[in-house]
Every structure is written in structure tokens, then in C-alpha cells.
Amino acid sequence: AIPLVVAINTSLAARNGMLIRDRIAMEEARDLDTIVFDKTGTLTKGEQGVVDVETVGNVDAEEALALAATVEGDSEHMIAQAVRDAAAERGVTTRTATNFEALKGRGVRATVDGDTVYVGGPNLLSHLDADVPSALASFAERAGENAQTVVYLVREPSNGRAGATRHASREGELVAAFALADVVREESYQVVDALHELGIEVAMLTGDSEDVAHAVADDLGIDTVFAEVLPEDKDEKVSELQEEGKSVAMVGDGVNDAPALTRADIGIAIGSGTDVAVQSADIILVQNNPLDVVRLVKLSRASYRKMQ
Ligand code: ADP
Ligand code: MG
């Protein structure tokens, strides 16, 4: 039989928009030491739009947007949507892409007019080992200071063209960078303060750059930051905290967050989370409101205090 207190607690939870897939997790929530949040789409609203474009060489902003929007044509990422919107707003015509491939946690790749073209963030650059022209480096630095996410456009010309027009190298060439402005959710400030009052540490886990991560974390008063983390490494960061003897919850919405949700003592999927995230979570916060994380801890503490 289900203990009465648990039954009451689960229906109370349900009334508050919390779906409990694992009742033990609900009980354990009172003992959490650290809560790790995914940044994009969880603490922030998700990418809002392209606010700036910088190009090098003979590529102009329109051409860069056309190429980027073409490569992003099939991606479901919020960044891809923002790039496509920016191209559409400027009336830029996209071209045809083939061999589209999503590079998890890095970006996308496709073939356009025979060239291999990439769009992606800092994790893509380290993957490609590409040099960043100084104009794009300072553009990225400025954007980072303003907590803007930067993605790069990289072109790898096909052999023939490369020989004809530039050095006979097959290396990718960075031709443009885009700055995207995201907005911190109003509730996120209250979440961090309230969790601190409950004696819980707050951490952020993101695939975005160190610059952006620290700008957002400083703004919110977050204690620990893990940035430029590849999807396959996210669960390791949760383990690191657990190895310090901490009881850890992970809050996220994306496919990329699934292993970390599984690894955490309590996995919490938020809002319109992807199916994979929802299936990996112990608790699902139906309303897309990070404040429900605070309610969850308070509800757990109130419900289980008597049982100790
Ligand atoms: P987060 O951890 O912030 O939720 P993701 O793991 O989804 O982010 O992506 C990590 C990083 O990979 C992004 O910040 C971006 O730099 C890059 N990226 C992923 N998908 C795309 C895409 N479709 N277009 C451009 N960049 C992308
Ligand atoms: Mg995310």
C-alpha cells in the first residue's frame, strides 16, 4: 500500500502541475544540496533573435545570412529558427542544401553549391580546429560581454574551387559570426534567491560559451558554472558534484539534457520538454515555470518532515 502521506503529497503535487514519475524522488527532494539548471530555454527564454552579423573577406551580411539559413534549414534548434527568421526578415533568399547533418551540441553541417558549410558555436570551432580571424574574435568577445550567444559560419570549399580561388588548403574558413540575444526569464532571479534561502546551491550547465554562461550566472547569482560542455559530457558534471557527496537535482528540457537527468539523484524535466527529457526525468514540471522547482522542494520538506 502507498503510505498516506505519499498519496496526499502526489495529488498535491499534481494539482501544482508536477507529474511525479518516481515517488522516492519526491521524498528525496527535501535533502537536495545542489540544483543544476540547463541554461538555454530553462533559465533563459531561448534564443530571441540575431542582433548582429560580422563578416570577413568578400562575404557580406546578406550572403552570410543566406548561407547560414540554408544550412540551418532542417535544424530544430532555437538558434536555427533565429537564423532563418533573420534571413526571412531581410528578404534574403536561401539556397538548396544537401547532406544535412546535426552535430549534437556543436551545430549543423550541410553541402551548399558543392562546399561543406557549418554553422555552430565554440564547440564546433574546437571540433574543426579552425582559426578565428581577429575581426570575428573581437566581435565574439563584445557579444559575450553582453551575454549574447555567438555562432560561426564556416565554409570548406570543394577541392576544385579551393585550388582556383585560394590557397590549396582544404581547411575550413571562418567567414562570418552571428550574435544572438537571449533573455533571462524573470522567474529565474527569484528561483536562485529562494533556493539559496533554502540552503541549496545553484549550478548552471550549458553548451554555450564561457563568456555567455558567466554573464548570465553573475547576473542571477549562480554559484557554479559548467560551460562549453558537450551533450555527452553533461552527465559527468552531475557526477562530479555527486562525488563531492552532494545530493543533486538536474533541471532541463532538451534531448541533450537526458543523460544528466538520468544521472542526477532527481531529474526534473521542465515545460514543453522534449520526449526524451520527459522520459529521463523523475519529475515533470508541466507549466513551463522554473519557480515550480522551489515549490517542489518546499512541498517535499513540508510533506515528509513528520516521517523522519
Ligand atoms: P544548451 O546546453 O545551452 O541547451 P545545446 O547543447 O543545445 O545548448 O547547444 C550547445 C551549443 O551548440 C549552442 O550554444 C550552439 O553554440 C551550438 N549549436 C547547437 N545546435 C546548433 C544549431 N542548429 N546551429 C548553431 N549552433 C548550434
Ligand atoms: Mg537547452
TrEMBL record:
MF-aspect GO terms: ATP binding; metal ion binding
Keyword list, A-Z: ATP-binding, Cell membrane, Ion transport, Magnesium, Membrane, Metal-binding, Nucleotide-binding, Phosphoprotein, Translocase, Transmembrane, Transmembrane helix, Transport
Family: Belongs to the cation transport ATPase (P-type) (TC 3.A.3) family. Type IB subfamily.
Positions spanned in the full protein: 395 to 702 of 776
Principal subcellular localisation of the protein: membrane
GO cellular component, one term: plasma membrane
Subcellular location: Cell membrane
Tagged with keyword Amino-acid biosynthesis: no
GO biological process, one term: monoatomic ion transport
Protein name: Heavy metal translocating P-type ATPase
